[in-house]
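Bench log, entry 3. Co-assembly request; chain sequences pasted below exactly as received.
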Amino acid sequence: MYPDERVARFIQDNFIPARIHVKDQAEDYRRYAQRYNAQWTPTLLVIDSQGTERHRIEGFLPADDLLAQLTLGLGHSAFVQERWDEAERRFREVVDRFPKTESAPEALYWAGVARYKGKGDVAALAETGREFTRRYQDSSWAKKASVWRS
Amino acid sequence: MAITWRKDIDKALDDARAQKRHVLLDFSAAPM
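Structure output for the full assembly:
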């Protein structure tokens, strides 16, 4: 599981890793699966320091996609806690390091929102809208950002 | 590099609170 060195290092550096095995820890599995509404394996939850789920990854992903999702999760966690600079940094990290993953257009969208909220910079939304005319044009996130161009 | 997975979830969540870190909770069926 997670044989990719980059994945292992990222998890170890950014999280307290915890695992519940569906069979070997059946009682814990029932308890926490109910608490966090986990209904499938593998399910990975990014849980903040207060015990609140901030991101969910269900099913297997290749290394780059998993790294992008984990980074996206940390971005979302920072976002809801209004740590705008950190959120934007995490989101842009997804776009810069994993531009070909499905997480990238979502991250680009939220990077613009985080910048707008953190700096009060309306131009950040317009710039993000224009960026979507150059990349990820077919994504749903491009459609959502299209209103920012006008 | 091997990941050091915690099995005591309550303790992991407590440590996350104390250290202001995130927990990555993996519900797994993979061979251990």
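Strands of chain B lie at 22-28. The CA atoms of residues 5 and 26 of chain B lie 9 Å apart.
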